[in-house]
Amino acid sequence: MPAQYDPVKQFTENQSQEVQIPMVHPSHTTQVQHTHYKYIHSFPHTQSVVQSTSCEHVCAPCPPRPRHRRFW
What we know:
Blueprint: no helix or strand
């Protein structure tokens, strides 16, 4: 008689490998040194006092003015 065959039993062997792929995520920090100049304006005010005087000579009644004589 010819040989009888059962259906083929399937066996699976898994082979795997790990592949490492470098992923680079760069970052950068900038330090900013800032100088702020603040101009403070002030408006000082001074005050002074001036005292003044005046004088006036008044004649009441004034004497007549002398007449000048002319000589020719």
